[in-house]
Give the backbone structure.
Amino acid sequence: MKKKNVIISFGKRSIFSRLLSAVFYAIMVYVLVLFFLNNAFEFTEKYFISFLHLVKFELILIGFALPFSLSVSHHFNFVEMKYRKFYFVGPIGYGIWQKFKKLDRVSTFLNSRNECEVTIWDIRNNRYKIAVFNKINDAVIYGRDLAENIEIKFKERN
């Protein structure tokens, strides 16, 4: 195979998602700043309990902000035969490399929610779910293009 590394990414999140996550992150910073401006640091139980309430509220806000800012890309390293699903928010990301054998095919199929999934399979029948589309034709076009780019066969759903 000619390619050393292939990164399958879906680009930036929509402007609505980025705006909504920015609002949640701004609220987090605002509440944090307000807390430290209004409460002088003390070694008391009351201060510690109010700080724990702040941390709980901040974690709830992170729970709302992350789904709107989290992105996923798939990295294939064909020299070392490794794969990772890379989760990232802005420049900060995380993913664990996993070894795989030779890739066999790209396939599309309809799941139980009537969504068409694009999946890469290796020779041991391990599957790497790459994308989900609402329209079957979009998934087939994407799957064929992906199979052509990484030089493996494409199998369309039945």
DSSP finds three helices and nine strands in the chain. Residues 1-90 form one domain. The radius of gyration is 22 Å.
